[in-house]
From TrEMBL:
Name assigned to this protein: Aminotransferase class III-fold pyridoxal phosphate-dependent enzyme
Signal peptide range: none
Reported cofactor(s): pyridoxal 5'-phosphate
SUPFAM superfamilies linked: PLP-dependent transferases
Pfam families referenced in this protein's UniProt entry, alphabetically: Aminotran_3
Gene3D superfamilies in the record: Aspartate Aminotransferase, domain 1, Type I PLP-dependent aspartate aminotransferase-like (Major domain)
Length: 424
C-alpha cells in the first residue's frame, strides 16, 4: 500500500503524451518499447516490474543489466536507507567508496587499483586515455559491432553510426572482426607501432569468444607493448563472479566495469594494473604522464552503498550458482521451444544472460548475430510484453537472483505462444 500511495494517479498513455512534449521522441535514451505496448513503469519488486496501469511483468530488462539481485532487494534497500541518512554526496573520500574499491580489487583478477566513475562510457573513455598516455601512441583497435558507450572514440568505426562525431576521430581507430583470430593478428601486426590499446568485450554482445581468441589477443598485445582492455560492463559479475576474465582465464591490463557494480545507481569503474592505473594519480612523480580524471559524482557514496550490498548478495555462498542454474533453465527451455517449432535459431548467453538469434550459421561468427531477423525479434518483443514478460529481445534476457524456476517456466510458455503468434 505504501507503494501505490506514492504513484501519481495517471495512465501510461497520458504519461507517454507528456514525455513526447518535453523529451526528443519521448524517450530517455535510444531504447524504445514496441509502439503497440509502450508503457510507463511505476515500480519494481524482485523479478517483477509494474506499470502505472497496474500491469505486472517478469522483468528481463533489469535496468539494462544493473538489477542483478532484482528490484528493491531488502539488503540493497537497507544499505541505501542507511546511506541516505548519512548524506548522498561528499566529493571527498568516504568509507563507502573505499570499501567498494576494496571489494572490486578483491574480486577482479586484473585489478590492483580502481577508479570509480559515474557511467560506463566514462570508464571506457578513461581506459583509452590511460592507454594512450602509457604507450605514447594514439590508435585504439576496436571490434566492429562492439559497444563501449556513447563517446566519440567508442562510437567511431564500430559500425554503429552517429552524426556529430569529428571526422578526425576516425583516424584514431582501427577495426577488426571479433573472433577472426588471423585477421585480428594481422591488423595488430600492421598497426603495432601506432596502437595504444585493443579494447574488447570478452563476450561481444551475445557472441562468445572462439576458443583461443582472447588468448591470442593477450599474446599479441603483450608482445607489441599494447594495452589490452576488457570492457566488462555486461560480463562483469554476470557471466562469472570474476567476469570474462574468470570465465575464460585471460587477464587484461585494464578492464571497465559498470551496471552490476552500481546496484542500479550511477557507478562504473576502470580497474587494472597498478603501473597503468598510476597514470590516473595526480600525486605521481612523472607529471607528463598524468591523465586528468575528475567527475563531481565519482564514487558517489549512495551508489557505492548500493554496489557493496549488491556484491554482498551475489557473493553469498551458492547465490551465483543458483542464478546460473535458473538462467540455464531459461536457455534450455527457449532452445527446446524453438526446436519444437522448427524455427532455425541459436540460443546464446553465458552465466546470467540468454539471447535468441534467429539465424543459422556459426554462432561464433558475429555476422550470425548481426543476421538475426530484427523484425521477428521486435514483433516477438511486443507479443511477450502483451503476455507480461518485459524483454528486449534484440539485446538479451538479463536474469537476476530474484528470478525463480516458476518465473522461467512461465516465460518459456509465453515465448512459445509469442513465437506462434509472431510467425503465423
Ligand atoms: N560498454 C558496454 C559493453 C556496454 O554494454 C555499455 C552499456 N550498455 C557501456 C560500455 C556504456 O555504459 P553506460 O551506458 O553506463 O555509459
Amino acid at each position: 500500500s505504501t507503494i501505490t500511495e506514492t504513484i501519481a494517479p495517471t495512465t501510461a498513455s497520458e504519461l507517454v503524451r507528456r514525455a513526447r512534449r518535453v523529451m526528443p521522441g519521448g524517450l530517455l535514451g535510444s531504447y524504445a518499447m514496441p509502439s503497440s505496448v509502450e508503457t510507463v513503469i511505476s515500480h519494481g519488486q524482485g523479478a517483477r516490474i509494474f506499470d502505472v496501469d497496474g500491469k505486472s511483468y517478469i522483468d528481463y530488462i533489469l535496468g539494462s543489466g544493473p538489477m542483478i539481485v532484482g528490484h528493491c532487494h531488502p539488503k540493497v534497500v537497507e544499505a541505501l536507507d542507511k546511506q541516505v541518512r548519512r548524506g548522498t554526496q561528499y566529493y571527498t573520500l568516504s568509507d563507502t567508496a573505499i570499501e567498494l574499491a576494496e571489494r572490486l580489487v578483491d574480486a577482479i583478477p586484473c585489478a590492483e587499483h580502481v577508479k570509480l566513475t559515474s557511467s560506463g562510457a566514462e570508464a571506457t573513455f578513461y581506459a583509452m586515455r590511460v592507454a594512450r598516455a602509457a604507450t605514447g601512441r594514439d590508435k585504439i583497435l576496436k571490434f566492429k559491432g562492439a559497444y563501449h558507450g556513447h563517446h566519440d572514440y567508442a562510437m567511431t568505426g564500430s559500425g554503429m553510426s552517429t552524426a556529430g562525431t569529428p571526422a578526425a576521430v576516425d583516424q584514431t581507430l582501427v577495426t577488426a572482426t571479433y573472433n577472426d583470430i588471423e585477421g585480428t593478428l594481422a591488423v595488430i601486426a600492421d598497426n603495432a607501432a601506432d596502437l595504444a590499446a585493443v579494447i574488447v568485450e570478452p563476450v561481444q554482445r551475445n557472441t562468445p569468444p572462439r576458443p583461443g581468441f582472447l588468448e591470442a589477443l593477450r599474446e599479441a598485445t603483450s608482445r607489441h607493448g599494447i594495452v589490452l582492455i576488457f570492457d566488462e560492463m555486461v560480463t562483469g559479475f554476470r557471466v562469472h563472479l570474476e567476469g570474462g576474465q574468470g570465465l575464460y582465464g585471460v587477464t587484461p591490463d585494464l578492464a571497465t566495469y559498470g551496471k552490476a557494480i552500481g546496484g542500479g545507481l550511477a557507478l562504473a569503474a576502470v580497474a587494472g594494473r597498478e603501473s597503468l592505473m598510476d597514470h590516473l594519480n595526480p600525486r605521481r612523480n612523472d607529471k607528463s604522464g598524468y591523465v586528468y580524471m575528475s567527475g563531481t559524482l565519482n564514487g558517489n557514496p549512495l551508489a557505492a552503498a548500493a554496489g557493496i550490498a549488491t556484491l554482498d548478495v551475489l557473493q553469498e555462498s551458492g547465490a551465483f550458482e543458483q542464478l546460473v542454474t535458473v538462467s540455464r533453465r531459461l536457455r534450455d527451455g527457449l532452445g527446446q521451444t524453438l526446436t519444437e517449432a522448427g524455427v532455425p535459431a541459436h540460443i546464446l548467453g553465458e552465466g546470467a544472460m540468454a539471447a535468441v538469434l534467429f539465424a543459422e550459421g556459426d554462432p561464433f561468427d558475429p555476422a550470425t548475430a548481426a543476421a538475426s531477423d530484427p523484425t521477428l525479434r521486435s514483433r516477438l518483443d511486443a507479443e511477450m510484453i502483451e503476455r507480461g514478460i518485459l524483454v528486449n529481445l534484440p539485446a538479451k534476457f538479463y536474469l537476476s537472483t530474484a528470478h525463480n524456476e516458476q518465473d522461467v517456466d512461465d516465460t518459456i510458455a509465453a515465448f512459445g505462444e509469442s513465437l506462434a503468434a509472431a510467425t503465423k
